[in-house]
Design goal:
The protein has 188 residues and is mainly α. It is built from six helices and five strands. The strands form two sheets. A three-stranded mixed β-sheet has the order 1-5-4.
Length: 188
């Protein structure tokens, strides 16, 4: 993800820290969804917080889980394990944590559009739709010249890595197979 004029450009063209990257990406994702909602005449609400954690922490949806990121509809906030973002940044690239954020923002959008009901808060359909919403943001960011070569491939690599094993049984935590996740992202 390229920096814009609001950031001090550094030699490598990237935000200085993972916190800077999260701040930059959050602002971009939030602005994208505000524009999308404005275009259809709907009211959009930003998440109440985008918050990192490094250990067990209480949220409106219970205690945080290591190596995870999630949207909590009870407090309309996005939470992520700092080590998950550090590992995805180091192992895949700078767009991997952005993809995770965009995916979790997708759940916020589902919530605001009424797709997250009490009995329908988890499941493969919601997860794949969140991947599709992340793809919508990515397509827009690319059209606006915010992406660097390889960013889309980093998102696809993370979607592949985070997919459920082929043939596994569906459960509450199922996100879809690697192929399904990549297809949903690409559809966006």
């Amino acid at each position: 993800l390229k920096e814009t004029g609001q950031w001090t450009t550094v030699a490598d063209g990237c935000p200085d820290t993972i916190d800077d990257l999260v701040t930059f990406a959050s602002a971009e994702i939030d602005a994208f969804w505000k524009r999308e909602f404005d275009a259809i005449g709907e009211e959009y609400s930003s998440p109440n917080a985008v918050e990192a954690y490094e250990g067990p922490e209480r949220t409106g949806c219970g205690e945080t889980v290591p190596e995870n990121a999630f949207y909590c509809p009870n407090d309309q906030s996005i939470y992520y394990d700092q080590s998950l973002f550090d590992e995805s940044l180091d192992g895949i690239g700078d767009f991997a944590p952005v993809f995770i954020l965009a995916h979790e923002w997708g759940h916020l959008i589902q919530d605001q559009l009424g797709f997250l009901t009490m009995r329908n808060r988890v499941g493969i359909r919601n997860e794949l739709q969140a991947d599709c919403f992340a793809g919508l943001f990515t397509k827009d960011a690319e059209a606006r010249g915010l992406l660097e070569p390889g960013d889309t491939e980093e998102a696809l690599a993370l979607a592949f890595e985070a997919g459920d094993p082929t043939g596994s049984r569906q459960s509450e935590v199922s996100h879809g197979t690697s192929k399904q996740r990549q297809q949903a992202f690409a559809l966006g």
